[in-house]
Design a protein that fits this description.
This is DUF1672 family protein. It comes from Mesobacillus zeae. The structure is a single chain. The strands form two sheets. The chain has a four-stranded antiparallel β-sheet with strand order 1-2-3-4, sandwiched between helices. Among the domains are: 1-55; 148-245, no CATH class. The protein has helices at 2-32, 66-74, 76-91, 145-158, 160-177, 184-190, 210-218, 224-232, and strands at residues 95-103, 106-113, 120-128, 133-134, 200-204, 241-245. The protein is α+β, with helices and mostly antiparallel strands.
Length: 248
């Protein structure tokens, strides 16, 4: 239920960013030409849009989460500790909480990994708003969300040189061609899809990376070389990992 709501919301935000970025660029051109921007529809004007470069997550919310947000804010430190413990116990990974958003019956808590692995994901902390109570011992996450995030982070480490080349190329290309990537502040607060950059994130559509996860959970102190050794023993097809753009 929460996953469905989150993805609907992210889709809405993505649409708003696309429109906002384009409209703001048009508005800038009109001002340079000495023209006054006109309302886009009804009584609303271009001022309600935020450019994609400047958007850092203001207004990000989930349906029916107003009361849960208030409860989460009051219990922020305890929720953070519960989520950190959850990831350390279940996934052998230290995380830092980047944001928490009230949802229907819960708080969705966005986290970033610490240490060798570089990934973003989230956990769900149930909240009983009728009793003003946070259920700290019932933290959970959607099936395969954290698992996939860890696998993709390990995939990145196993191909570190190639990713470094790709990231350097995209950074240079964006400057030369006015490509707009996702605002880093927005990424830090709301990223949840594993390894994420301002220009792309990844998704996996097979179980071919599972041996990486299994090895990591048994030996969380793996080095980069250990990960590459396990990865080199696997057979990964090109279409099993896809790259999705966050640029406009």
């Amino acid at each position: 239920m929460f996953k469905h709501k989150k993805r609907l919301l992210i889709t809405s935000i993505g649409t708003a960013l696309l429109l906002g970025g384009c409209l703001n660029m048009d508005t800038s051109n009109e001002k340079q030409n000495g023209n006054t921007p006109k309302a886009t529809s009804g009584t609303q004007t271009d001022e309600r849009y935020v450019s994609v470069q400047d958007y850092t997550g203001e207004g990000y919310r989930m349906d029916n989460g107003e009361e849960e947000q208030k409860i989460a804010d009051k219990n922020k430190e305890k929720i953070e500790k519960a989520v950190e413990k959850f990831f350390l116990d279940k996934y052998k990974t230290e995380v830092v909480v980047r944001n928490m958003i009230g949802a229907d019956g819960a708080a969705t808590v966005f986290v970033e990994s610490k240490g060798l692995l570089d990934f973003y994901t989230y956990a769900i902390v149930p909240i009983d708003d009728s009793e003003n109570k946070v259920l700290y011992d019932e933290v959970w996450t959607e099936q395969e969300e954290a698992e996939t995030a860890i696998q993709l982070a390990m995939y990145k480490i196993a191909n570190d040189d190639k990713f470094n080349y790709l990231n350097d190329y995209l950074a240079s290309f964006s400057k030369e061609n006015d490509v707009i990537g996702e605002n880093p502040e927005f990424k830090k607060k709301f990223a949840s899809t594993g390894y994420v950059t301002p220009f792309y994130y990844m998704e996996s559509f097979s179980d071919s990376l599972l041996p990486l996860l299994d090895t990591y959970l048994k030996q969380p102190g793996l080095t980069k070389e250990d990960i590459q050794k396990v990865y080199n023993s696997l057979e990964i097809k090109p279409d099993e990992i896809i790259f999705l753009s966050t640029c406009i």
